[in-house]
Amino acid sequence: MSTSNETVNESANLKALSGLSLAELEKFIEEMGLPKYRAAQIHTWIYAKLVTSFDEMTNLGAALRDRLKQEAKIGLLDIAHLQVSRDETRKYLFKLPDGKIVESVLMSFNDRTTLTACVSSQVGCAVGCTFCATGYLGFKRNLTAQEIVDQIMAIERESGKRISNIVYMGQGEPLLNTEEVIKSIHTMIESVGIGARHITVSTSGIIPGIERLREEDLPICLALSLHAPDSKTREEIVPITKTYPLGALMESLKNYTDSTGRRVTIEYVLLAGVTDKPEQAKALAEMVRDIHCMINLIPFNPTANDLGEMLYERPTREAQLRFKQLAERTGKTVTIRLERGTDIDAACGQLHNRFLQTK
Ligand code: SF4
């Protein structure tokens, strides 16, 4: 009789199939000495029918299902923790094969039929934004494309719901893991069935990554977390500005919009007394005047750092609206982000920190 530890070890040795592209599944199936069409069948069961066991793959035959059970498993990630907020936002902490933890969030909006999932692209983050809980964790490692895609599939298997939109806004800077992120986007489109225009990659401003995305020419949406219209403030709150200066970043963004013809989103966090001043709203409007973009304002969701200090405050509703009005002066669309899951720490990195603190 096997012990539970042996069962865990056995499971770790099995090849996880969810999150693989069709070509990767074909390679695995051919290595097993099986005909290629079996990969397409398994692909359909995993991505279209969301099965959780080989026994459900009824067109494979009992002998083949038994063989697959010996060598493979469906999901790569395990759910370590799940929280559901009053507004139905679902937040997942996933355990990776090496035991590290990442988070993903599933958000639904009452007035829309869409379901949006926010995925992580790294464990921790090297960018170190001063207002972000993930920034305090530091960088641990990049996720593989399979680990990124299986966040979506694990959410769909658990919730039984189909996701329509994906945002790369969880833990990590996607464009410091560009090749795996691009690979995952191809699988999201080709296997998971998400429309390219329903996928958004959000970057803190990694110029080589923006260039690489431009070359790849995927018709996805790009969001830039700008957060300040002047170098001094931005260097303070988004330290990577010292590596990729603001002027060069805006040039790279203009180049991206001019050559792809696609509108980008400028994300701007409103920190009381730091980034919400009227002169900053005017400077922001001028800075993006010639860039094909819209602006999304994010009122700060107060977060304590690892010393338990609250570094920033949320601006009043009045200050938010005043900023919005001034930022609209050059004719751009400006929105204030609708928040989800604030009762369960939905902001980037917050759930992960809370989970670790309570362990
Ligand atoms: S906001 Fe994003 S880029 Fe900045 S530290 Fe957090 S995860 Fe990294």
Task: Note the main attributes of this structure.
13 helices, 14 strands, DNA polymerase, domain 1, two-stranded parallel sheet, binds iron/sulfur cluster, TIM Barrel, alpha/beta
Compile the SSE list and pairings.
Blueprint: H1 4-13, E1 15-16, H2 22-31, H3 37-47, H4 62-71, E2 72-73, E3 78-84, E4 90-95, E5 101-108, E6 115-118, E7 122-124, H5 133-137, E8 139-142, H6 145-159, E9 165-168, H7 178-192, E10 199-203, H8 207-216, E11 221-225, H9 231-237, H10 246-260, E12 264-270, H11 278-287, E13 293-299, H12 317-327, E14 334-336, H13 350-358
Parallel strand pairs: 1-2, 6-9, 9-10, 10-11, 11-12, 12-13, 13-14
Antiparallel strand pairs: 3-4, 4-5, 5-6, 7-8
The structure holds iron/sulfur cluster.
Write up what this structure looks like.
With about 350 residues, the chain is α/β, with parallel strands linked by helices. About 40% of the residues lie in helices and about 20% in strands. The chain is built from 13 helices and 14 strands. It has helices at about 5-15, 20-30, 35-45, 60-70, 135, 145-160, 180-190, 205-215, 230-235, 245-260, 280-285, 315-325, 350-359; strands spanning about 15, 70-75, 80-85, 90-95, 100-110, 115-120, 120-125, 140, 165-170, 200-205, 220-225, 265-270, 295-300, 335. It is elongated, with a radius of gyration of 22 Å. The relative contact order is 0.11. The site of iron/sulfur cluster (SF4) has 13 residues, from helix 5.
